[in-house]
Amino acid sequence: MTMSALEGAVARAGSGTSLSDEEALALAETGVPRGALLAAARSVRDRAFGRVVTFSPKVFLPLTNLCRNRCDYCSFRRSPGEPGEWTMRPHEVETRLERARATGCSEALFCLGDTPETAFPSYRQTLSDLGHASTVDYLHWSARQALARGLLPHTNAGVLGVSAMARLRTVNVSLGLMLESTSERLCRPGMPHYRAPDKRPEKRLRMLEAAGVLRIPFTTGILVGIGETRRERVESLLAIRRLHRAHGHIQEVIVQNFRAGPTTPMAAAPEPTEAVVTETVALARILLDPDVSLQAPPNLNPTSLAALLDAGIDDLGGISPLTPDYVNPRHPWPHLAALERTCTTLGFRLRPRAPIHDRFVRSEWLDTALLAPTRAVQARLRSIERVADLVPREEVSA
């Protein structure tokens, strides 16, 4: 495609005409002037979401950091016996949920490594000692504890099978799995996903597809800066778009930028620039359907909020007043009062939301037993006048 044809396609995207796969891939290869791309992305965002930027007040519960994958960029995962290994005990889950309720959280995010029981006999014994036959059993119990305290569970437990997702659907308002990338190249020897069997694209796409069939509101996203090309980013976004158009279940997409961890094999790898991150955000906004929310983590982009809003985000994901980001512990959450002031200065209103987006709160998408507690949380969040008043304190503690 010629540059003028691409510029016309991007302008039409800004006016509401979806780019074709062919146009998207041509855009990945050629690019268009940055100003035109950002303007189109802002136009899509403003029509769909207005000048409101949302976030979910959450508590982060990393049930275990044991993981059978060894992604070259990950500082979260551990093997049994390694320094920093943990599996939360039931009393720790309950204590943290009690604190979360007192601190104004509405989301209980359960996050853990991929299929640890398939790799570590000692972890299977730990689960048995806790009275659970599987990680899914423990997640189900933990989610019920959250619901009993007025918190809405959202679980990101890595790759799950159909029966596991169906069971967790009864106690979770939404589930998540980062697609990260559809690039098979990143799984080759010497690449960041080579030692990560659960990062094979077909396996993750299969779970996203199954979630759609099961009618589960779903969060996914791509990881930027781990060696992928712009074309591979666009291919990953198009894969997400195809799944959403087939099932309508993708509630939000995260554009997450790689941040180097000092103890990982990629400790010296260059991080993506703000220009790369914002270009990817803008591409995501004009490629994805307008009903899909788009977020970028504010703690991984602490000086880039204005640029990210300028590129088309409408959401900041989960932010915790209580717990750190265990996946990126060197990058603290922003303080809500300061974040609200910045959004106001930039012409946006910061508002809290539930971990399930409003349009999914109906029996077609949500287990009927979860409708009443979800609506109660929605009502509480809508009654909040100032985000700074959401929680009694703003410190992030371990």
> How many whole angstroms does the radius of gyration measure?
20 Å
Distance N terminus to C terminus? 52 Å
| Class from helix and strand fractions | alpha/beta
Tell me the β content. Answer: 5-15%
Structure description:
The protein is an alpha/beta fold and 398 residues long. 47% of the residues are buried. The N and C termini lie far apart (52 Å). It contains 13 helices and 9 strands. Strand 1, helix 4 and strand 2 form a beta-alpha-beta unit. Helices cover 40% and strands 14% of the residues. Residues 393-398 have low confidence and may be disordered. Strands 1, 2, 3, 4, 5, 6, 7, 8 and 9 form a 9-stranded parallel β-sheet that branches.
Summarize the structure.
By secondary structure, the chain is of the alpha/beta class. The protein has helices spanning 3-14, 21-30, 34-49, 90-102, 121-129, 135-148, 162-169, 201-213, 230-247, 274-287, 305-311, 336-345, 368-382; strands at 52-64, 107-112, 152-156, 174-176, 218-224, 250-257, 293-295, 315-319, 349-352.
List the helices and strands and how they pair.
Elements: H1 3-14, H2 21-30, H3 34-49, E1 52-64, H4 90-102, E2 107-112, H5 121-129, H6 135-148, E3 152-156, H7 162-169, E4 174-176, H8 201-213, E5 218-224, H9 230-247, E6 250-257, H10 274-287, E7 293-295, H11 305-311, E8 315-319, H12 336-345, E9 349-352, H13 368-382
Parallel strand pairs: 1-2, 1-8, 1-9, 2-3, 3-4, 4-5, 5-6, 6-7
